[in-house]
Amino acid sequence: MRSVTFIDNNDVTLLESGTAFFPALVAALDAAQYEVLFETYIFAEDDTGHTIRDALIRAAQRGVKVRVLVDWIGTEHRPCARLGEAFSETGVQYRVFNPWCRRGIARSHRKIVVVDRAVAFVGGININDDWHCDHADHHRLPAPRWDFTVQVRGPLVTQIHDEAQGQWLRAGHMRLRQRIALFRDMRRQPPMSCQNPARAAFVVRDNLRNRSTIQRAYLQALGRARESVLLATPYFAPGRKFRKALAHAARRGVRVTLLIGVGEFRIQDMVAHSFYPKLLADGINVVEYRKTQLHAKVAVVDDDWATVGSSNCDGLSLFLNQEANVVVLDQKFAATLRAHIEHGIADGVPIRAEEFKHIGWIRRASYGLAYMMYKLVMRIFAIGYA
């Protein structure tokens, strides 16, 4: 398992939801001169998707090498096919990650864009309308989906580029010798500098080289926490190590607050609810975000550690799917992200321990049953979940 390697001298800008992200993305694509690497989990057939699709096509028609990788389950089979048809005659190179689950059930849940090796975007925002729910029924949300991406400039972009390029190659047809060569090349660590105290790291999770890298980054930060932990996630169902790290931090006197999305998937809500009594007993503050769909996967620890990315705090993201986060060591960035999370907490509903004392045994049993089923599935498909 790789350690988290921080690189100095990066400019990292926080972008909140599609309102900030999509215009910045289109501007970068329209300024591209020679290369675009583009990964997303969902590439929707809506106005937002068409806008980004057209920007990618414009870049290809200018002679830019454009490579687009989408996930087969996230984007869905027929939209994947139609997107491929739209790209086929425009010069855009296009691949679908793991179609028909031929390589197992793991998904590429990453959202990464690298333009000219000069600017990169990494986060949780899919290519879809902020106002429409991103699961099956696509109903209109009461408020825009809440999510984040970071724009990165600086030496870290090289590492992001190399990982995105490797993912593109792995998604295609490669001989065993080529895969071994790629594996060796991707093991090389970038050089570290010590000129600027502001640092950032690019951390990914896969099922070969980085099985626990994202969780390790969280555990290290939680283990060093001294004052506060703010964590926002759409789905909360981490393994035992993660839950213990949160509890140990709270017992040391750290103010730990979890902002958890609810209302999207009932079974996922039930699994999260099964943890509430223990979390509350350990002194952890639990707040449910019910204003709209919470899709942000972000955290701030103390005054200088922050992360933004695609990884939820659940078994799928931490133990099965392919994910990508950026971790930033910078007080200004952490303060900016903290303010956004605190605003989300203010919009949320605090959960009180006394509320669970009066829950009927049927509901309590259903929460426990949901967790046992979830745990069984994770143990079958995701090595390391407990």
Please tell me about this protein's structure:
- The protein is α/β, with parallel strands linked by helices and 386 residues long.
- Helix content is 41%, strand content 23%.
- The strands form 3 sheets. A 9-stranded mixed β-sheet has the order 1-9-17-15-14-10-12-13-18, sandwiched between helices.
- The protein has 2 domains: 7-182, Endonuclease, Chain A (2-Layer Sandwich), CATH 3.30.870.10; 200-381, 2-Layer Sandwich (Endonuclease, Chain A), CATH 3.30.870.
- The longest helix has 21 residues, at 361-381.
Question: TL;DR?
Answer:
The chain is an alpha/beta fold and 386 residues long.
Core attributes:
single chain; 386 residues; alpha/beta; Endonuclease, Chain A; 2 domains; nine-stranded mixed sheet; seven-stranded mixed sheet; 13 helices; 18 strands; 41% helix; phospholipid metabolism
